[in-house]
Design brief:
The chain is an alpha+beta fold. A 5-stranded mixed β-sheet has the order 4-3-7-5-6. A 4-stranded antiparallel β-sheet has the order 8-9-10-11. The longest helix has 21 residues.
Length: 584
């Protein structure tokens, strides 16, 4: 047991055979519970969760008697000697692990690099300022100081190794030990909860941190217990999914400090939206599951969450194991380096401190169908979603439509939005200033708004009077389903192998196969490959390739992983339930 969970050689633990057998049975039961939790994880996540179990021996710690994995024990083995006073007397280790009002003169650990030593000493000052034990400069925002601490930890976890992270964790934990000020104690526990959700500690400190969190969760102080319990959950997520990519946003930090959820807005293609209450550590897969349940959608494999950024014309599928708020924190263009973040927050240069980035100005999350099959239209719960997506793809010019198609669909949309009009009713100027909401972008400049309005209503007058909007939306989608590109996902790619085709193309993938389209408003299909003819596919960081017989077709794209996953999902879904044929 010691060898597996603690990484040490097995030693005589002083237990009887019966007690040892009982402990082993508890491990087996715990693993059975964990297996239910990790059943739906990817292989990558399952591997991380397995590592997390080895680093977080909950059951062992519950059984150990006497002092073990205490901060004092860690300090005795890892802290450097500190001296104080004129006589240069040695500071007892017991004092080094307790709360102190004064700043550190040097780091707790023996950090060889003087530059890192100075930064870590400044880091302790920032920790004390966040906890309210040291006065801040007049221009210093506590949230920015806290984000600077998190930025430093991400920097160290990426470039400096475990010693720096251990120093940061120990500085926080020592200020929680015997802290006489309840307000400072609560701020410190909130800080620790933010830190464990951003990056994990070094493995050498993991067991000690777990004991600190376990003891905190049983504290008589209800706020301390709540923060410690939250930190335990967040730490498990971090161990499963790895450190964050970006420094948390203000709304995440405030959510942790206030023990409240973050309200996430998910948009639909028609710009309606739904909101979900999530935790800062919530993954995209969990958001997708909650969204499908909220909308009574039966099979979540057909749906996905995409991100749209203002500086990117394409929408990108968000991977299931991605922390949704971590993804949002990376919006807003080029991010400052972590070193620069550190300097801004800790060198107190007021001119360098920038305003908080507001991510909602730079993009949004879009909920839409990922795998689109004709049989999905038979489920009433899918009707609104499929109509909004079809309308969006038509309007944005994703489908190569004729003018006749454009007019018919616009007339049907008028019937849905505005109701039925006759030739004698006052229909003129109803679409004034709104033509772009009805006509595809590739056709809108071909005629004047007045001409488009006359042709739309001319077709509209031919329709049979119908008040049922659900039926009208069904007719709209059925018209789109006749196109062979219906339900496609689109990717801008480059190709250099087929001399008869342009270099820049659009690749479309749907339930029938893979298509290559000319880049532009017309989107003419120049090549198509049915899934039945595609034998395999693969990707690298900058390429996607697939085999058609003995022919290999390769395109350059940074979204090869997303295309490959989409092809695999379609192939799996087709195997389970082959879709009916559709007129092309």
């Amino acid at each position: 047991i010691n060898a597996e969970y603690m990484g040490d050689e097995a030693e005589d633990d002083g237990l009887t055979e019966k007690e040892r057998a009982l402990r082993m049975e508890r491990f087996r039961n715990a693993d059975l519970v964990r297996s239910d939790i990790t059943a739906d994880m990817s292989d990558k996540d399952r591997e991380r969760a397995s590592s997390a179990r080895k680093m977080m021996p909950n059951e062992i710690l519950d059984e150990l008697e006497g002092p073990s994995y205490t901060l004092l024990e860690y300090a005795q083995n890892n802290f450097q000697v500190h001296r104080k006073g004129v006589l240069n007397r040695k500071v007892p280790v017991e004092k080094l692990v307790r709360f102190q009002k004064d700043l550190l003169k040097k780091t707790l650990h023996n950090v060889p690099d003087p530059v890192d030593q100075n930064k870590l000493v400044d880091l302790f000052r920032a920790i004390m300022q966040v906890m309210g034990d040291k006065t801040r400069e007049f221009h210093q925002d506590p949230l920015k100081l806290l984000k600077g601490i998190l930025a430093a930890g991400l920097q160290y976890s990426t470039h400096r190794g475990g010693l720096m992270r251990s120093e940061l964790y120990c500085q926080i934990c020592k200020q929680l030990n015997n802290n006489p000020n309840p307000s400072s104690l609560h701020r410190g526990w909130a800080l620790l909860a933010c830190v464990v959700g951003t990056f994990p500690p070094d493995t050498s400190f993991m067991n000690y941190l777990h004991v600190i969190l376990r003891e905190g969760s049983t504290s008589p102080d209800k706020m301390v217990a709540a923060y410690a319990a939250s930190a335990q959950r967040r730490l498990l997520y971090t161990l499963q999914h790895g450190p964050r990519k970006n420094v948390p946003m203000n709304i995440e930090i405030e959510a942790v400090q206030g023990q409240k959820p973050v309200i996430l807005r998910l948009m639909f293609c028609d710009m309606r939206f739904k909101t979900l209450a999530i935790e800062p550590s919530t993954t995209c897969a969990e958001v997708l599951h909650d969204m499908c349940r909220k909308m009574s959608l039966s099979d979540q494999q057909y749906f996905g969450i995409y991100e749209r950024q203002s500086n990117d014309p394409e929408e990108h599928l968000v991977a299931g194991d991605t922390r949704i708020l971590d993804q949002m924190a990376g919006w807003g263009g080029k991010q400052k380096s972590l070193d620069q973040e550190f300097l801004d927050y800790f060198m107190k240069n007021k001119d360098q401190i920038e305003e908080e980035v507001r991510p909602e100005k730079h993009g949004y999350f879009l909920f839409k169908t990922k795998l689109c099959f004709p049989h999905m239209h038979s489920d009433p719960n899918n009707h609104e979603l499929l109509y909004a997506q079809a309308q969006y793809d038509v309007k944005m010019g994703n489908y190569p439509t004729s003018t006749a198609d454009a007019i018919w669909l616009a007339a049907k949309q008028v019937q849905i939005d505005l109701g039925q009009y006759s030739r004698d009713s006052g229909w003129r100027d109803l679409l004034k200033g709104k033509i772009q909401e009805y006509i595809p972008v590739q056709w809108i400049n071909m005629k004047s708004p007045e001409e488009w309005e006359r042709e739309i209503f001319s077709k509209h007058f031919e329709f049979v009077y119908e008040r049922d909007k659900k039926l009208l939306k069904h007719q709209y989608v059925e018209h789109c389903m006749r196109w062979r590109l219906y339900g496609s996902s689109f990717f801008v790619v480059e190709q250099h192998e087929m001399s008869d085709l342009p270099t820049n193309l659009v690749m479309a993938v749907n339930y029938q196969g893979v298509y290559l389209l000319k880049l532009g408003l017309t989107r003419e299909v120049v090549a198509s490959f049915d899934f039945g003819a595609i034998s395999s596919w693969g990707f690298s960081r900058v390429f996607f390739a697939f085999m058609v017989g003995t022919r290999k077709i390769s395109v350059r794209t940074k979204r090869g992983s997303e295309i490959a996953d989409l092809c695999t999902a379609y192939a799996d879904a087709r195997q389970r339930a082959p879709p009916p044929s559709v007129t092309t």
